[in-house]
Amino acid sequence: MPPPRSSDAPTLAELRRLTDRAGGGREAPDPRALPFGVSGLDAALPGGGLALGALHQIHESGPRGRYAAAAVLFAGGILARLDGPVLWCLHSRDLFAPALARVGLHPDRVVYCETWRDAEVLPAMEEGLRHRGLAGVVGELTRMALTPSRRLQLAAEGSGVTALVVHRLCAGEAAEPEPSAARTRWRVAPAPSEGTNRRMGRPRWRLDLQRCRGGAPGAWIVEACDAQGRLAVPAVLADRPAAPERVQRRAAG
Q1: Residue 201's pLDDT is what?
Q2: All structural domains of the chain with their residue ranges
Q3: CA 182 to CA 180: how far, in whole Å?
Q4: Do residues 212 and 184 touch, judged by C-beta distance below 8 A?
Q5: What's the pTM?
């Protein structure tokens, strides 16, 4: 029988509090993660941000999924905050360089690879991911099966270069991408923005983190990327008290 614990001995909870106090109460940010600067969003991601040197999927919901304009700008904003050139594997010649510049990704940083079919995009991405000097590799795809996604994930892990797949969903295709080895999967959709009769407000997006390895899925209304590629919480939403959490129960079986 173990001896009785002394009243002066600290409990496990007290030791944790002392450890948190010594470290400032926060975990050190992971240098291999890129924070978005939106607290709720970063808290849902392991390491406090988007994992670098990994594969991520982005697609856009609604009738504009074929063009994926918001998804492209979301990808551009991410890469704008990384150093180095970007390899962008095109699906068609409709990528609007001035729009990328508006979210901080200057056209001088982008190397365009004209790959019109998925069968050409995938090997071009894999080859690009072997070059450690790149900030990232983007591929515009209609579909990505599990095996090619594993190859891209392994290539990204090996070089430390971030891979982004922007899905351009064609008419008649499923609204959601297939399962893959990507670290995260995002869905972007335009959201109503505030404005006056004279001036439109900053565009807003609804960001859905549909899948995150080691993290928690969620949804956020954010202001679209600015000229530095940064998201923001709309002022109206930032001042609003947090909504009570609702527990969702799934039917057994």
Answers
A1: 74
A2: 52-183
A3: 5
A4: yes
A5: 0.80
